[in-house]
Amino acid sequence: MSATTGQVLSHGALRGTKREYETVTILAPSTNKTDILDLVSKVQGIFKDFDASLLQIENWGSRTLAYPIKRSKTGVYLYWRFLGGSDIIRELDRNFEISTAILRYHTVKIDEDIDPAARPSEVTEDLLNAAAEPPPEPVVEPEPEPSERHRRSYDEEE
């Protein structure tokens, strides 16, 4: 690691500040709790190496994809929000490309010149364990049967 690790590599950036990013990853539908915990611990190791901090992590659960990705029609969505230098994105991209559990990912820069002391991390072990658990599936209620009056009006129109 060089002396510039964990810094924003931009001439216009203020010294000692970080950028705020958010990443959404789509994991394979077969990913279980231990796989998610392994991924989170690996990413936290990258954050530690690059002097970044995880601000928020959420498990959005399993969702149907708009189109199949690597022959998967569903995926588990994980949302990450973190502070770090511009160099961490390249390392996260490299690790996400190598991972077999990650189908897709997308990182967006939210804000620049953030004082890391002003945004302390609120991530605890309980929050990490909660992120590894999929949220409950939404309850889908069946459509109500049409009333007798509506059925008769359809029959009369024919």
Tell me about this structure.
It is a single chain. The chain is of the alpha+beta class and 158 residues long. It has one domain (18-137): Alpha-Beta Plaits (2-Layer Sandwich). The protein is 30% helix and 34% strand. It contains four helices and four strands. A four-stranded antiparallel sheet has the order 2-3-1-4. β2 (53-69) and β3 form a beta hairpin. α1 (33-49) crosses α3. The longest helix has 17 residues, at 33-49. The radius of gyration is 22 Å and the shape is globular. The model has no long low-confidence stretch (mean pLDDT 81).
Task: Briefly characterize the structure.
The chain has 158 residues and is of the alpha+beta class.
Give the domain tally: 1
The poorly predicted ranges are: none
Approximately how much helix is present in the residues?
25-40%
In N-to-C order, the SSE pattern is: EHEEHEHH
CATH superfamily, please?
Answer: Ribosomal protein S6/Translation elongation factor EF1B
The CATH architecture can be named as 2-Layer Sandwich
How many β strands by DSSP? 4
What are the defining features of this structure?
about 160 residues; alpha+beta; Alpha-Beta Plaits; 4-stranded antiparallel beta sheet; 4 helices; about 30% helix; about 35% strand; globular
